[in-house]
Design goal:
It catalyses: Endohydrolysis of (1->4)-beta-D-glucosidic linkages in cellulose, lichenin and cereal beta-D-glucans. The chain has 468 residues and is α/β, with parallel strands linked by helices. It contains eleven helices and 21 strands. Helices cover 22% and strands 24% of the residues.
């Protein structure tokens, strides 16, 4: 997250494709794998990341964030960890707890070591070799979690100095992780504070990919001020697609001190080309970039304008995210675990930015005997649009399915929905359960949501619920 120091000349990509002679990955079928530039989960189903970054290492008490991030539709969370070289080390027990939170909330965990940020320019940063030491030191809690965990070796591993070592250092780190028995998909960040303005990662990605004996490495570009035009974004990502190399946008924002990134193109191009993206960040930013908080004070009911954009906007997480198929057939309840015993102080304190319209209190219809009830809540509202949630609760007996109905009084129109099949006829809408949330035990609940438009008035409708 630093402004580039110079403008790099455009390098040819011939080396990228010339060395990229690969076939099917050698990865065992126990976890994620890469083939022909795409990421697949353990069931062989293509997986496209849609999620956010969460600063766990500085806010270890915010364990509810995992459930809250999932509730807004994300399928992935990139979790900030510390190796102990710059910030207090996240213990093996703490990492195991993070993984359990991801699994309980049906999220894929991308675990990243943050202490490498800006190495070569920031004197406090550590090396990729030290980050590799960290992963090997906690290998016991990582092994066996290949279906749910991706290992991001080091965040933004070089600044704007000394980044010529990126190819060799990254290749060596991958080889050491494989020799240490880690078979997970590995993610690697670009140099230049993650933005790769020198094209070092772009032009040497093939070499790094082939250095992985399992051919199971994904490349991560961070898009801030360097990527402030559509042409720069589409050219960079498109070259990886042309070369058949896997690429994700591991961090990006809607604004930054080094320029104004084109988040609309990042999200639309990623959606059109099935490229994963992970926005920065859920909450807790400091040091002058508090505007990158998606929520105010970790409160999911207080999305900032950036939070509204990335979750509810065009090509946003809520509408485009698809849960990893490895969670199909299981229904763990979202959970939060007790905070770890160690609670290092955050490097920066959370600073609230903007607050959306107050949450509308839910309205509940009387429960029919042995049936279900439904309550309607406006979670967030902005000019011309809003996000609504409807909670369905079974009555005194278990149900096998449900249908909720409501009628808008002010011309509101639903454009997107999730966790239900929603259809409209005029101002009346009908929502039916999907396969995984129709069966509810007595008193149990499930929630579905939608994005809708409104103009002038947004009265809360009564919702009826019919059980089957």
């Amino acid at each position: 997250m630093k402004k580039m120091l110079s403008v790099a000349g455009v390098a040819l990509l011939t080396a990228l494709t010339a060395v990229f002679a690969f076939g099917q990955p050698a990865q065992a079928a126990t976890g994620f794998s890469v083939s022909n530039g795409r990421l697949y989960d353990a069931n062989g189903t293509e997986f496209v990341m849609r999620g956010v970054n969460h600063a766990h290492t500085w806010y270890p008490q915010q364990t509810s964030s995992f459930a809250n991030i999932k509730a807004l539709g994300a399928n992935t969370v990139r979790v900030v960890l510390a190796t102990g070289d710059r910030w207090t080390k996240n213990s093996a027990a703490d990492v195991a707890n993070v993984i359990s939170l991801c699994k309980a909330n049906r999220l894929i965990c991308v675990l990243e070591a943050h202490d490498t940020t800006g190495y070569g320019e920031d004197g406090a940063a550590t090396t990729l070799a030290k980050a590799t030491d960290y992963w090997l030191s906690i290998a016991d809690v990582l092994k066996g979690q290949e279906k749910y965990v991706i290992v991001n070796i080091g965040n933004e591993p070089f600044g704007n100095q000394g980044y010529g070592a990126w190819t060799t250092d990254t290749s060596n780190a991958i080889k050491r992780l494989r020799a240490g028995g880690l078979t997970h998909t590995i993610m690697v960040d670009g140099p230049n504070w993650g933005q790769d303005w020198s094209f070092t990662m772009r032009d040497n990605a093939g070499t790094v990919f082939n250095a992985d004996p399992q051919r199971n490495t994904v490349f991560s570009i961070h898009m801030y001020g360097v990527f402030d035009t559509a042409a720069e974004i589409t050219d960079y990502l498109g070259r990886f697609r042309t070369a058949g190399l896997p690429i994700v946008v591991g961090e990006f924002g809607f604004n930054h001190s080094d320029g104004n990134p084109d988040e609309d193109t990042i999200m639309s191009y990623a959606q059109a080309n099935k490229i994963g993206y992970l926005g920065w960040s859920w909450s807790g930013n400091g040091g002058g970039v508090e505007y990158l908080d998606m929520t105010t004070g970790f409160n999911p009911n207080q999305l900032t304008s950036w939070g509204q954009r990335i979750f509810a906007g065009a090509n946003g997480i809520t509408a485009t995210s698809r849960e990893a198929s490895v969670y199909s057939g299981s229904s763990p309840s979202p959970t939060t675990s007790p905070s770890p015993t160690t609670s290092p102080s955050p490097t920066t304190s959370p600073s609230p930015t903007t607050s959306p319209s107050p949450t509308t209190p839910p309205t509940t219809t009387p429960p029919p005997a042995g049936g279900c009830t439904a309550s309607y809540t406006v979670v967030n509202s902005w000019q011309g649009g809003f996000q609504g949630d409807i909670k369905v609760t079974a009555g005194s007996a278990a149900i096998n399915g449900w249908t909720a109905k409501w009628t808008f009084a002010n011309g509101q129109t639903v454009s997107q929905s999730w966790n239900a099949t929603v259809s409209g006829s005029g101002s009346t809408y009908t929502a039916r359960n999907v396969d995984y949330n129709g069966r509810l035990g007595a008193g149990a609940s499930t929630t579905f949501g939608f994005i809708a438009s409104w103009n002038g008035t947004n009265a809360t409708p009564a919702v009826t619920c019919t059980a089957s």
